[in-house]
Amino acid sequence: LRMEDSKSKESRGALIVLEGLDRCGKTSQSSRLFSSLEGFGYSVDLWRFPDRNTGVGQMISSYLLNQTQLDDRTIHLLFSANRWEKRSMMESKLRSGTTLIVDRYSYSGVAFSAAKGLDIEWCKAPEKGLLAPDLVLYLDIQPEEAAERGGYGGERYEQLEFQKKVSQQYLMMRDHSWKIIDASLPMEDVEKQLSALVLDSVDLCRKGKPLSQ
Ligand code: DGP
Ligand code: NA
Ligand code: NA
C-alpha cells in the first residue's frame, strides 16, 4: 500500500522558475539544471518566457528589439498573454510528471512593468490564475555587476538605470516560494546551490504536493 501511495496519480513534476536581472546568469543556470536533472533520469523540460516563437511572442520580440513601439500597458498584457497561451500545456506537462525549468515568469512581468511606474496591483492582475511556482530561484546580482558582464545586448530594457529599478521591484515581491542565491559567486557554486534546492522541490512534488494557482 505504501508503494502504491508513492506512485499515486498525484505524483507530478515541479514548476521551477528562475528570475533575476538581465545578465544575472539565469539562462546558463537554467540549461545546467535541465541537463543535470535529465542526467539523473527525471522527465524535465526547459522553458523560457517570453516564448518568442508564438504569434504573441513575435510581437514581444520586435518590441524588445526596438523595431516596434507599444504602449506600456499594451506590452504588459502581451507578456501576460504569452504566459497564458502556455498555461494548459504547462498544467498537462506537470500533471504527467514532467518537471519544468522556466527561465522568467510572472515576477518578470510585474517587476519590469512596475519599474516603468505602472501600478503594481494593476501589473499583478492579469497574472492571477496562472500556475504558482513550487520554487522561485532568484539570482541576486548588483545591477552594476550585471552590466559589466560582457555588456548588454542592446535590447530595450538592458540599461543600468532601468535595471536598478527592476531590482528594487523584484526585492519587494519576495515570498515564501523564493530562494535568493548570490549570483556573483562562481558559476559552479551557484549551480550546486540551485541543484540542491531543485532536487528537494522535485521530491516534494513527486510525493504529492498539490499544484496551486
Ligand atoms: P530574456 O529573453 O530573458 O532576455 O527577456 C527579454 C527581456 O524582457 C528582459 O529584459 C526581461 C524582459 N521581460 C521578460 N518578461 C517580461 C514581462 O513579462 N514583462 C516585461 N515588461 N518585461 C519582461
Ligand atoms: Na535579455
Ligand atoms: Na526569457
TrEMBL record:
The entry's cellular-component GO terms read: cytosol; mitochondrion; nucleus
Nucleotide-binding as a keyword of this entry, yes or no, is: yes
The pathway it acts in is: Pyrimidine metabolism; dTTP biosynthesis
Superkingdom, natural source = Eukaryota
Gene Ontology biological process terms, A to Z:
dTDP biosynthetic process; dTTP biosynthetic process; dUDP biosynthetic process
Give the E.C. number(s): 2.7.4.9
Which stretches make up the Thymidylate kinase-like domain? Answer: 18-193
Q: Which UniProt key words apply to this protein?
A: ATP-binding, Kinase, Nucleotide biosynthesis, Nucleotide-binding, Transferase
Alphabetically, the GO molecular function entries are:
ATP binding; dTMP kinase activity; nucleoside diphosphate kinase activity
Supply the enzyme class, top level.
transferase
Give the family from UniProt. Answer: Belongs to the thymidylate kinase family.
- The name under which this protein is listed is Thymidylate kinase
